[in-house]
C-alpha cells in the first residue's frame, strides 16, 4: 500500500533535516502547485521544466527565480503536480546516470576531442580576420558612397550664367 503524503509538510527533506522542496501554493486537489526548491538556480529549474513538459498530461510548467540573491527557484506545475515533479526528478536522475556512464566510458577509452585535437587559437584568428575584412570592405563601400553623393551634389552639370 502506498504511503500517504501530508502535503502540509515539505515534499523532500535533505539528510541534514533541511527542507529541499516545499509547496508554497496549491489548489485543494493539488492539480496546480507551486514548489519552492531551496538552494537551486536556473540550472535545475530549466531542466526540471523541460522534463515536466515531456509529460503529455502537463498543461503548464514554468519556473522563476524570485530574486538573484536568493538561492531558490519556484516551479509551477498544472496537472497532478506532486506526481509530475517526482516523475521528472526520477527521469532526470536516470538521464544523468546515462550521461555519466557514457562520459566515464568515453573518458576511459580516450574517445573524446581534446584541446590539442582542435586549434582554438587558429580558429579564433580566422574568425577575427574574416570579421575585420568584412568591416573594412563595408567601411570602404560607405566612404565610396559618401564620395559619390558629395560629387553629384557639388559638381553636377555646368550651368551658364548670363
From TrEMBL:
It comes from the Eukaryota. One of its GO terms (biological process) is transcription by RNA polymerase III. Residues 33-100 form the DNA-directed RNA polymerase RBP11-like dimerisation domain. Residues 135-162 are annotated as: Disordered. GO terms for molecular function: DNA-directed RNA polymerase activity; protein dimerization activity. One of its GO terms (cellular component) is RNA polymerase I complex. It holds the Pfam family RNA_pol_L_2. SUPFAM superfamilies: RBP11-like subunits of RNA polymerase. Keywords: DNA-directed RNA polymerase, Transcription. InterPro entries: RBP11-like, RBP11-like_dimer, RNAP_AC19, Rpo11-like. CDD domains: RNAP_I_III_AC19. Belongs to the archaeal Rpo11/eukaryotic RPB11/RPC19 RNA polymerase subunit family. This is DNA-directed RNA polymerase RBP11-like dimerisation domain-containing protein. It comes from Filobasidium floriforme. The lineage of its organism: Eukaryota, Fungi, Dikarya, Basidiomycota, Agaricomycotina.
Amino acid at each position: 500500500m502506498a504511503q500517504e503524503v501530508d502535503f502540509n509538510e515539505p515534499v523532500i527533506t535533505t539528510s541534514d533535516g533541511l527542507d529541499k522542496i516545499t509547496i508554497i501554493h496549491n489548489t485543494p486537489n493539488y492539480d496546480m502547485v507551486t514548489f519552492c526548491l531551496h538552494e537551486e538556480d536556473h540550472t535545475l529549474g530549466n531542466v526540471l521544466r523541460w522534463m515536466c513538459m515531456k509529460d503529455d498530461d502537463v498543461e503548464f510548467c514554468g519556473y522563476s527565480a524570485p530574486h538573484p540573491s536568493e538561492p531558490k527557484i519556484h516551479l509551477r506545475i498544472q496537472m497532478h503536480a506532486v506526481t509530475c515533479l517526482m516523475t521528472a526528478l526520477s527521469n532526470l536522475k536516470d538521464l544523468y546516470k546515462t550521461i555519466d556512464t557514457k562520459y566515464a566510458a568515453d573518458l576511459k577509452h580516450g574517445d573524446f576531442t581534446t584541446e590539442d585535437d582542435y586549434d582554438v587559437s587558429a580558429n579564433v584568428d580566422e574568425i577575427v580576420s574574416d570579421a575585420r575584412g568584412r568591416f573594412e570592405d563595408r567601411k570602404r563601400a560607405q566612404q565610396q558612397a559618401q564620395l559619390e553623393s558629395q560629387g553629384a551634389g557639388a559638381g553636377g552639370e555646368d550651368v551658364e550664367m548670363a
